[in-house]
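Today's session is about reading a structure prediction critically. Students often jump straight to the picture, but the first step is always the sequence itself: look for stretches that repeat, for charged clusters, for runs of hydrophobic residues. Only then move on to the predicted structure, which in these notes is written as discrete structure tokens rather than atom positions. Here is the chain we will use throughout the hour.
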Amino acid sequence: MFFNKLNIWLISSLLVSLLVMIPILTVSISFFEDTSQYFKILKETFLIEYIINSLTLLIGVLVITFFLGTGSAYIVSFYKFPGVNFFKWALILSFAIPPYIYAYSLFAFFENYGTAFVILKNIFGEGEYNKHIPKFDGMFGLILSISFSLFAYVYILARSSFLYQSQNLIDLGKNLGFSKFKSFYSIILPAARPAIVAGLSLVAMETLAEFGAVDFFSVNTLTTGIYDAWISFDDLAFANRVSFFLLLFIFILFLTENLSRKKAKYHLETKGGFKQKEKVKLSGSKSILAFLFCFLLFFLSFLFPLGQMLYWTIKFPENFLDFNSMDLFLNTVYLVLLSCLVLITFALISNYGNRVSKNKTLNFLSTFSISGYAIPGVILAVAFITFIAWFDENIIQFFGFNSIKKIFIGSVLGLVLVYFVRFYSLAFNGIKSGYEKINIAVDESAYLLGYTKSKTFLNIHIPYLRNSLLFVIILISLEIVRELPITLILRPFNFETFATTAYISASEDLLEAAAVPSLFLIIMAATFIMITSKYILRVGDE
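Below is the predicted structure for this chain, in token form.
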């Protein structure tokens, strides 16, 4: 009877859930194993520093992204001013700049005899400008780099919430005699709180997972500790020990976020139903200030790093000539296509299985399987290597089979598997949102017409899901193009992407050489974002 209940949908979701469970269990179990000498040294020296730096970084980024994301979302959602329709989608382009590329730009612009020095010299002639140019490095530079790269998470979700707030909320504030600031603080902001918290949670997870920028500014965090344990000390037990602490951070973050919105609502109940919000047309100095704020944010988050990379590329053309762009492009596209194929296939199977079977076990497994996005890439990579090494030694060789390490470690297959765990939630949730728009009556009508479940899926569901699938493909592509730690650790020998090439050049203090792959990466990512914002998310509508 049990075997009769098993079906392809349940099995596929079980497999996906197991893949997500492996890194979590591997890290957790490894924590209780015998510790290495390296970890004992770390515990007595740098572990507290790792934890304090991680907390400082997290708090700094959350504060800045809250003000930037919420402030910009409020301005473009509630007011009319010159350029507002442009800024609605242009502010999202910050996603095209990974934190590590922003870090390269920020450091290079303000360093001794850097770009700022050159600009001042060309304008004012020779002079001692370095002592007047601020230096953005260390923790401060790191916080700024990550904040300007990630504030769009808060912006997108906050704007979405603001757009669907009723005019009744604003009228309520006016009737109570509230100032605009008090109305915003007491009425509008609480109504958008769940969306803002969700955006900040994504920012927090990305911040804790960030490696490239953290490593570049030489700030010791739990993420760099994990990477150093594996690369510098070649000690998986050591790496997993440090991973456990970072996993605790993520768990506490999840718990806090869930508790904070336990009784929260995405809207405020008002009498009179929903009333379309009336945008206030700004004029004079207020209009200028709104424009300047949005333009400055757009400039600092996108144009500034893009300009720095473009400047280096033009100034040092030999780097472009020595750059094998075609190989890197093909490698990146290869990873994108293969990952999209695997992710979308399993996400479609799981979503369709949930729809037709209504199995509680299947639903639970599907929900659990999307938690992989919360696990930092560096943890996933190290845990994957640890598990494969254990499985190879204790299972494969026990039965006398050939070693499987080479198949999964340092191979495209292993890379795609870890991508799968990391980004499955994007594919699953993206397709799920599309499925929720298909009324179940459509399926019932198809069955009455003699359609099988498979025919219904292929001939009705897939066409309905076309936009959702395109959205998922673009999202996955964007993430893989930007991804660094997983690719850096698990890539095959001599297999590079734009991200790894830029990182390697920067780590060797060849920032000018990092400009070309960084520029290609930005262009690819920006293209994906513009397509998404215009045709899928409709960020620039109305």
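Discussion point for the tutorial: Confidence is low (pLDDT under 50) at residues 1-6, 263-274.
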